[in-house]
Protein: DNA-binding transcriptional ArsR family regulator
Organism: Nonomuraea rubra
Amino acid sequence: MSTEPVMHTPAAMKALASPLRREILRHLANHGPATSTTLARAMGQNTGTTSYHLRMLSDTGFVTELRERAKGRERWWDVVKADRRTPARESLTDADQDLAERLGDSKLAEDLRLLSAFARNRDEESDWQQSSRAGTFMTKAQLKEFHEEYLKLVHRFSVDRDAAPADARMVLLRWVGFPDPRGS
């Protein structure tokens, strides 16, 4: 994975706006390379649909074709690992700010659905969930520094899918920091 942050372009944000594309990315990250056929089967879609979405993800740099695995017309795809970030709000046009906001809302709703699904099975896997909730006073500069330190911590503990121990699972990490909208 590249250590330099990659800022999302408007095209990348549009690509991520599709929940199915995000599901494809999550599947590839979790299970490894796949074809449009295996993805279609796993997601209850047809191969035309998954092929289309894979091309969109490829065009925006989220997936890459593994040409060495190709056999005949069969194409294999894998996720491209990178430190991807949404650009600063002030660098986006009004339309792109709206797109980033809608994408953020959609991703948050998806994250809440995933957490809720996990919570329903908590009795079986309660020790897999670790969480914390805190509030503190920071300046904008301190919050940005905290965010960078968080990313360093994520990178320190990250293991490539193929090098992960047999009992490792994909763990979804979500960190967000924002000023309390109820106060100044």
Q: What stands out?
A: The longest helix spans residues 94-120. The first strand starts at residue 6 and ends at 7. The chain has seven helices and five strands.
